[in-house]
Amino acid sequence: MKDMMKLSPSTSQFLVSLAYFPWSIKPIYGILSDCIPIKQRKRVPYLIISSCLSLLPWLILGLSQTLRTSANMLTSLLIVQNLGSAMADVVIDAMVAEAVRSAGPEFAGDLQSLSWSSMAVGGIFGSLLGGYALSNLPIHVIYVVFSALPLFQLVSCMFVEDSPKRFQSAIDEHNNQSSVTAFSEEGSGEALGKEGARRRKGTRKNNKRRPLSKQTEANEKSNGSFNPSPSLSLKSAFFSLCTAFKQPAILRPMAWFFFSNVTIPNISTVMFYYQTEELHLEASFLGTARVIGWFSLILGTYTYNRYFKHKKLRDILVFAHVGLAIISLLDIALVLRLHIPHGIGDKYMVLWGSALADAINQFKMMPFLILSGQLCPPGIEGTLFALFMSINNLGSTLGSFLGAALASALNISTAQFDNLALGLGAQLIGTLLPIGFLFLIPNEVTGLTS
Question: Which residues form a coiled coil (predicted)?
């Protein structure tokens, strides 16, 4: 976008934000995965579909010069690619949410840490590959290489366990009703956890003692499996989703996480332009620098799980946003060249900023992920967890659009970065604003959210 299409920073920021829009409608993929099984399977078929959606756009861009040099076509294909990535993410999130609820709150942080650490290891190798590719390969070859990665994801679907649906719909309906009762009576994540524990014990006893009814046996013989109409499943899921989400124990924290992203104008693409055009840092260096960011993400995940998960959630979020504000101060110092008299190079400022930002962000994301996983009623894990993540992603997307509008209003262009410090100042103020809304988070809740 910068070198070949010669787009302005604000235009690139807008198109990148638009390309990531599929991450803001994740409940749609969750509903499909939870309620409409394919060949009686809820997860693997959607992993296969999503892998194909991620694979094809990179192949098309690698093979067609016309499409990859058109801003509209490039954005359209990136939207399709992100559609596939977001759908796969929903399926994986649902599987992690199921594991979190089954393992219990004491292991929730460990499971989320394992999930994020695995992603970080992949990110390290991906960043190293990206840095090498930018330095040694033409752009169309890079796109073809990108297509190989979703291909590996497609092959990995062979190793994912996914039992047939069979009686899952009936069990889900029973669990959904139990979840609704728990939310109505207690209205808290703790109550849901206790009710879920009792429900699991009762289910095991019932499975041992209660034989199948004659009607169920007849249906089993005639249909081979219990599979009600998708419309009934969708209606049940939508009802459970609305009932669960309107509870203050869920609605208020989710509202805070949404506003905490909306108030921060994201100008990361503008900063990329500044770092490459004004500071003359190689794009390959910035790609490789992400390795430091991924390592710090692992460190942040470990530090949170080891030292912070027992502290009050409000204190953790204050720490995270004050830390992110300090990162904005580092960016302002970089743009104003305040580090030059101290003999600190531009690359070191960029590396430290990237490392600290990724580590501190984990102190905000880990409680959000654990909270989301524990509050998901059984049977609609993919849908409700996807709704939680979509709220977070939609806030981030709106923050990116706000950043694009801010860059345009400040007349920041490829050759004009005089007002970039003002934009970073606005970002700093926006980062501190969510601290004033922390009353939405219950005071007694800890990083374990239980």
Answer: none
